[in-house]
Amino acid sequence: MADTASGTFTLVITGAPYASQAPQTALGFARAVVDAGHRIDRVFLYGDGVHLASVLCAPPSDETDWPEEWSRFLSEHSIPGVACIASALRRGLVNQAEQKRYELPAANLRAPFEIAGLGEWVEGRMKSTRTLYFHAGD
Amino acid sequence: MADTASGTFTLVITGAPYASQAPQTALGFARAVVDAGHRIDRVFLYGDGVHLASVLCAPPSDETDWPEEWSRFLSEHSIPGVACIASALRRGLVNQAEQKRYELPAANLRAPFEIAGLGEWVEGRMKSTRTLYFHAGD
Amino acid sequence: MTAIHTLHILNKSPEHPRASRCLATVSPEDALLLTGNGVLLLSTQKKPVTHKVFVLSPDVDARGLGGMTGNAEAVGFAEMVSLSLQAQRVISW
Amino acid sequence: MTAIHTLHILNKSPEHPRASRCLATVSPEDALLLTGNGVLLLSTQKKPVTHKVFVLSPDVDARGLGGMTGNAEAVGFAEMVSLSLQAQRVISW
Amino acid sequence: MSTLIMIDQPPYGAWTGREALDMAFSLAAFDQPATLLFAGAGVNWLRPSQEAGGVGQKSVEKNLSAAPIFGIEAILADRAACITYGLNESSLLKGVTLVDADAALLKDFDHTAFAG
Amino acid sequence: MSTLIMIDQPPYGAWTGREALDMAFSLAAFDQPATLLFAGAGVNWLRPSQEAGGVGQKSVEKNLSAAPIFGIEAILADRAACITYGLNESSLLKGVTLVDADAALLKDFDHTAFAG
Description:
heterohexamer, C: alpha/beta, 5-stranded parallel β-sheet, 5 strands, E: alpha/beta, 19% strand
């Protein structure tokens, strides 16, 4: 049986905010991981999950701002947040480097999220005690 | 029976490109509508469909660029393309007016798409001979 | 040209709960047009109650189902447009 | 602490095809944690083969199912974290 | 020109249902007749005592209760789906009419739409 | 550390399957054992003669045929799902092994993942 005294986690979010509940459930889980004294190695956004890293979401003021909540949580706890580059480019999520490379009119990646390849997920899968996925759940 | 000699259409797209096939099927249909001499009153993007109006998508060069294909089609045939404002704001799709209003760092709406309310859909539903929906189809 | 009451356009795979809902509301005077993942119905044993079943050719070809259309009529987008005007109403499932 | 072979986390509604697949692969030595729309299983007649069924409280409350948990144990995120470490492996359906 | 807006996904897990409700409210705002039909897992919208604070969302119960005020003609729920999810007339939100969501019902409407 | 990547959505209608394939290829690229399992409607990935030009996509058949070259350990397909969709051993793409996608199979892997 795994040692439950301490563990490290990679969290993969594949559901988008305002389309699925995935970012909300993942945040509740992530906060509990930190509260219990465990470590989150990284949060990896994949597929539609990359929309969580958008800096341009403007939800109604009486709704939770999930991208804002997530970026604050990641910053506070110095947890790396990574959006998969292939998912992000197809879905219109770019940082300044990609904006330049593809000659796009703007960048919309929210700090502290970064863009990187699936290797980040592979590393998490190999090194973290547990890798959990938060999918859309129709 | 409806007059099949001529008709007008409102097309509603609710599935995102690179997540669903909806924009592709809708484009095939839209081209056939125009080819048959019918009119498209408007194309309305709703829910996840608003991502089709992103100017920041950079799909791999060997894949179809659906936002680009759609905006070219709309421009060529002077068909209004409208993204629902409520869907768009939640999902991080904004034009310069919304960028300013919400003090966002960038705008990412692709021309000729515009942002407007559900009233545009209601009008289409009332005035067009047919309103068809192109949903994601898991 | 046959009269069609409702044209049901189904783009969900046969496993999707909405596919069952769609098939349960198709009447004999309706037509069913399978698009997208909906064309996979061709490969299963599920049979709609209407005889007017159409399948969108590019979707059939993409999924390698060209040899399994059976009694369904393969159509292109031009016919999809005609069908949508010919029917009294259209439901996009 | 009971030994758990696999923790199955199911967030799909009972109609979703993946819900059936999940339930079909749960063994008696596994645990099932219902989250999101997965908690709707509580309101149906479908019964998993394991006795170790957990449900995520905030999701149960949102859906008004507080009175229908039956033999399932309501847990918070803290217990979800413990369960995920306690189990030998986790499958997020 | 009566329109049926069908909701077949449960609340909170996805935004589609909320967006379907917005469609119905928009029709009503433009004085167009609109009816809501809850089918499949969508009937779970109609269960009372939803407390959604823990999932960081607003309860959809309140939205729904505003439907008659905004001019929605009727709120229908598929009888068979209600049985599947352990709901009956007395355990549903007030103002909901049980129906059979079959071919005959759909033919009462000029237009039927989903939000996604 | 063997990983099972499960694909239960059909090709072309959604991108999830392609993204699942990318996950498997990435594992293989880092010399991590990866196996693909097609279940449910996902078995339709394995039908030969896919011509996807008409839907503006690349055929997934080519991607899949590259799997052994990239080091994917096995391509498995659920037997019952294949029957549902009219597929049998002789009508499947080459290199696919029929299995029962049950509890016992999943226990052969340290980790099982979906792309979405």
